[in-house]
Design the sequence.
């Protein structure tokens, strides 16, 4: 590196060089003043560029599928007005309904002798909300099977086909329902099944079940259910609901039951 | 009441003895205690390839004879060691061969022929009156049985032979051996007045399991050859057989309402029974001439007995509206009366009436519930199911003399027993019992003895025993 003495020497040399130059400039003559010039008359001011007084979209936000109204007013010396995005040339003042698929910025350009002027208007498009849930469907029409499943069984005493008080109550409600069913399903014919508990002989129960079914039919017909809409069948003890050997099961099996077929 | 039952038992026994007395040359041969003749049936041996058939053969022969009701079986454990296979195997004992006392006065064993003297079988312990023996062999693909029956009371083997016959069968399967055993048994039983059941059929209702379809099936009287008749995949029930065995009638839900069907059985064919309009036509059975069907119908109002042609035409009611008449059965001997079950007077009972519905009388005494009447071929007895003495639903099999109304209880304290049906021999009955926990078909003698289970698969009901 440089020692202190060297730095001093360099600084000295540089100073000498600067002094030498400065002395030379101070001796040059000043230039002459410029000649006077004739100023031409000032040119007329250029016409002002047309201006866009107003350009907007109303509403500025739409849901896809809806439309927005672009409107504009251009003033000044106008030779042409156009809007991009496929709209093209338009009048100085006007409006145009647009229905862009996506958010779009429209640029209006007006041109005149004075220049161009532009303005933009943006229509924001948002995706439509999910369709509202469809209104709850109307309750499906009750099928014949639904109706029949709601009909109540009528129960019997052992070895009897008399309609007991509780069976009368059940069958009376059934009669009202049956009238509706028959009105709704004019071609339907319903079957009254007669059933028995397991104790008697199979052969005797076949008859007893028939007698129970026809006793129930007679009761319903008395209450105004058309006889030709009801048929009877006996299953005797062939189709028990349960097979326990006790009175609670036996009672379940001593019954008339409605079905749509056989 | 016990006295009545014993009288009925005696009369049934007398009936069965009646058959024995019809035997050609067996009068007076019934053993001295008044019981049945005793027969020894040692297992037959088979030569060579015939060995594979002897187990089935011996079992079938034994079952047929043991279940016949006309013979008593000498227990096999009491037989001598040696078993003759042909008449020539017998030897005459030397005339001096008599029981002798030793010097000490003890009885020493009587000399014996080791099974080859006739008296080896007639003396204690076998104590038989008759001996069935023989052997089986196969020759040129044919199974042969040489079957013999000896009357052990005769003096010499030459005089003792009652049967000496050759039976032939195919060797395709065990059926041939079984058939041969049935024939040999039938020949033996014929000598004792028993009608053979070989060739008769038991129709019944078969169900694979609970809540599955019920079909009409048929089997041999020993439970063999079980196979279907109907395949309606429905509820087919209540079979009955025509007197000549060519037709069956039954009830089926195959077309909706329960209706009667009449089928020929060989080949199986629907003969198209015309069903009158009714919510139920059912429980058919044939008249003795096989030309008409009696049945129960709900036509008009449940339920009356009707009679119609075997094609269902010309139907007319026999009983009156408003009764609850079931299961009509025409007397097979006279064709002049009908037994039936009915709820007309309250709980189900057995009634009898003329063919025109007149002279109705109740046969059962009004106690319990009585059902399922079935005529004995003689037209003098019925079998039926009755809850008398038991809780509701606990049926037992009874027989009753329809004139004296004496009755006999055949089953006791073994589940529900129903639907008795007389065999054509008038000595056996088929019936349904749930004593094993499931309904099965059983057979027994008219005395209630020799009860045999015939079905084991699935559930089986309502036997009808016919030709």
Sequence:
């Amino acid at each position: 590196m440089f020692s202190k003495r060297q730095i001093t020497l360099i600084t000295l040399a540089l100073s000498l060089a600067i002094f030498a130059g400065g002395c030379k400039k101070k001796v040059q003559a000043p230039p002459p003043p410029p000649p006077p010039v004739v100023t031409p008359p000032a040119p007329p001011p250029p016409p002002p560029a047309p201006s866009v007084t107003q350009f907007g979209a109303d509403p500025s936000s739409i849901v896809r599928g809806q439309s927005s109204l672009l409107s504009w007013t251009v003033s000044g010396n106008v030779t042409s007005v156009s809007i991009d995005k496929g709209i093209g040339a338009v009048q100085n003042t006007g409006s145009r309904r647009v229905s862009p698929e996506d958010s779009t910025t429209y640029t209006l350009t007006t041109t005149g002798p004075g220049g161009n002027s532009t303005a933009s208007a943006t229509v924001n498009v948002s995706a439509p909300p999910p369709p509202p849930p469809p209104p709850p469907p109307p309750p499906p029409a009750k099928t014949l099977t639904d109706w029949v499943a709601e009909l109540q069984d009528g129960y019997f005493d052992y070895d009897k086909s008399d309609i007991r008080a509780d069976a009368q109550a059940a069958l009376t409600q059934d009669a009202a329902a049956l009238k509706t069913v028959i009105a709704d399903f004019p071609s339907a014919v319903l079957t009254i099944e007669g059933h028995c508990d397991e104790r008697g002989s199979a052969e005797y129960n076949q008859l007893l079940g028939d007698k129970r079914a026809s006793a129930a039919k007679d009761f319903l017909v008395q209450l105004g259910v058309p006889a030709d809409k009801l048929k009877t069948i006996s299953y005797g003890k062939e189709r028990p609901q349960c097979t326990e050997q006790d009175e609670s099961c036996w009672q379940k099996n001593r019954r008339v039951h409605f079905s749509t077929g056989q | 009441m016990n006295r009545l039952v014993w009288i009925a038992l005696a009369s049934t026994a007398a009936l069965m003895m009646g058959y024995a007395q019809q035997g050609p040359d067996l009068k007076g041969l019934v053993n001295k205690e008044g019981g049945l003749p005793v027969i020894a049936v040692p297992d037959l041996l088979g030569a060579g390839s015939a060995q594979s058939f002897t187990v089935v053969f011996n079992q079938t022969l034994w079952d047929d004879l043991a279940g016949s009701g006309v013979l008593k079986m000498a227990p096999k454990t009491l037989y001598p060691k040696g078993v003759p296979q042909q008449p020539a195997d017998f030897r005459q004992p030397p005339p001096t061969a008599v029981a002798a006392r030793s010097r000490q006065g003890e009885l020493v064993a009587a000399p014996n022929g080791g099974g080859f003297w006739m008296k080896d079988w007639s003396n204690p312990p076998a104590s038989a009156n008759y001996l069935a023996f023989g052997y089986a062999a196969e020759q040129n693909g044919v199974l042969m049985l040489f079957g013999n029956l000896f009357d052990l009371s005769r003096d010499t083997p030459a005089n003792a032979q009652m049967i000496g016959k050759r039976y032939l069968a195919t060797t395709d399967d065990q059926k041939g051996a079984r058939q041969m055993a049935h024939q040999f048994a039938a020949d033996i039983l014929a000598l004792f007045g028993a009608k053979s059941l070989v060739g008769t059929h038991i129709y019944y209702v078969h169900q694979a399991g609970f809540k599955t379809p019920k079909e009409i099936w048929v089997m041999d009287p020993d439970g063999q050859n079980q196979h279907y008749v109907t395949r309606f995949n429905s509820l087919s029930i209540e079979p009955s057989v025509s007197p000549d065995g060519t037709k069956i009638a039954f009830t089926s839900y195959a077309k909706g309402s329960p209706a009667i069907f009449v089928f020929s059985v060989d080949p199986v064919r629907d003969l198209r029974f015309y069903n009158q309009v009714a919510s139920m036509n059912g429980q058919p059975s044939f008249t003795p001439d096989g030309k008409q069907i009696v049945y129960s119908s709900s036509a008009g109002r449940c339920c009356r007995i009707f009679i119609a042609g075997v094609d269902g035409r010309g139907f007319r009611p026999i009983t009156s509206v408003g009764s609850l008449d079931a299961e009509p059965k025409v007397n097979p001997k006279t064709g002049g009366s009908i037994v039936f079950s009915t709820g007309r007077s309250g709980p189900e009972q057995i009634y009898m009436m003329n063919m025109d519905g007149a002279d109705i009388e109740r046969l059962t005494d009004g106690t319990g519930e009585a059902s399922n009447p079935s005529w004995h071929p003689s037209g003098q007895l019925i079998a039926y199911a009755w809850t008398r003495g038991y809780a509701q639903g606990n049926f037992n099999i009874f027989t009753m003399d329809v004139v004296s109304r004496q009755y006999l209880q055949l089953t006791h304290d073994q589940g529900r027993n129903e639907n008795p049906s007389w065999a054509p021999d008038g000595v056996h009955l088929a019936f349904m019992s749930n004593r094993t926990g499931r309904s099965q078909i059983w057979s027994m003698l008219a005395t209630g003895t020799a009860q045999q289970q015939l079905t084991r698969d699935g559930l089986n009901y309502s036997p009808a025993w016919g030709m």
Summary: DSSP finds five helices and 30 strands in chain B. Chain B touches chain A at residues 210, 214, 235, 237-238, 251, 253, 256-258, 279-280, 282-283, 296, 298, 301-303, 324-327, 341, 343, 347-348, 369, 371-372, 385, 392-393, 395, 418, 461-462 (CB under 8 Å). Chain B has two domains: 33-190, 197-466.
